[in-house]
Amino acid sequence: MINRLVIIGVGLIGGSLALALRQAGAVKEIIGVGRSQENLNAALHLGIIDRAESDPASAVKNADIVLLAVPVAAMQPTMAALAPHLEPHTIITDVGSTKRDVLGYAHRHLPKHLTHFIAAHPIAGAEQSGATAARANLFQNRNVVITPLPVNDPAAVNAVSQMWVQCGAKVSSMTPQRHDEIFAAVSHLPHLLSFALVDEIAARPNAEELFAYAASGFRDFTRIAGSHPEMWRDICLANRDALLHELDAYQGHLENLRTMLEQGDGAALENVFEHARNARTQWLVGLSQ
Q: Per mean pLDDT, which of 35-44, 196-205, 227-236 is the most reliable?
């Protein structure tokens, strides 16, 4: 049982965590902190939080767990503001999509609290943002990755793991570097490509005509271009090196496809398409198990 949970950033992820823990009967009190009073009011109205605070320092008093659910670029100032006010027993965790930068901020601003800073990343989301987008089942059967430090208190790591398990998630762990490399390939690159395609078409003189004829294929490919621009700006910059590596690899593959098109090599194109289809089918089968 979490007696007092403080969520800094009551958006889709933070709000959904609150609702899931309430549904599981795993939390007594939830305090929400945020920069938008309108969003906090919505969270109160929807029963996501019990109390809203504008001052993080006063909010974290007697907290069992503090969840940092702010954009990754806001992690550093948030940690700096919290550092003098944290109690020894308070566990801090985050939901950032990058881990090496967040842990770097923790080393810089929370050096005396590193035993209780447990970095985590729930692999769940949607294009919508804010408290009104939160839902209790967001983490059901979804992966949550924890990237523990050698100095972490095992009891704190277990507490964060159990928090996510109570939300219906499947918890695993890996190193921060491996985390950032994996998600550069399967999350950050797809978002970059989706944003790029929509932006390129929107900049054309006949954009209105093109969008008028776009159908389900375009909709499915570009769904994630509806995601929060500020958040994804921060993620891309935070994981720049790994993302550049993946972008180079993807551009190389596009060049190969371009050569096949120029040469009219239908057999080679079909082989690529067949390999991709089979790989995606196997991935979907794995998701359903």
A: 196-205
Report pTM: 0.88
- Nearest alpha carbon to residue 147 among 111, 172, 127: 172
Nearest Cα to Cα of residue 121 among 140, 157, 146: 146
What are 287's two structure tokens?
A: 């998701």
* Strand duo 143-146 + 120-122: pairing: antiparallel
* Model confidence pLDDT, tens digit, residues 84-117: 999 999 999 999 999 999 999 999 999 999 999 9
Spatial separation of the C-alpha atoms in residues 259 and 186, rounded to whole Å = 25
What DSSP letter does each residue of 99-134 carry, written as one string? Answer: -HHHHHHHHHH-GGGGGGEE-EEE----S--SGGG-
Q: Helices 240-262 and 229-238: crossing angle, nearest 10°?
A: 100
Q: Which residue has the tokens 């970095």?
A: 119
Nearest Cα to Cα of residue 99 among 243, 241, 239: 239
Three-state DSSP state, 213: helix
Predicted local confidence at residue 55, as pLDDT: 84
Q: Give residues with Cβ within 8 angstroms of 221, minimum separation 6.
A: 194, 197
What would the DSSP string read from start to end of 192-240? HHHHHHHHHHHTSTTHHHHHHH--HHHHHHHGGGGS-HHHHHHHHHHTH
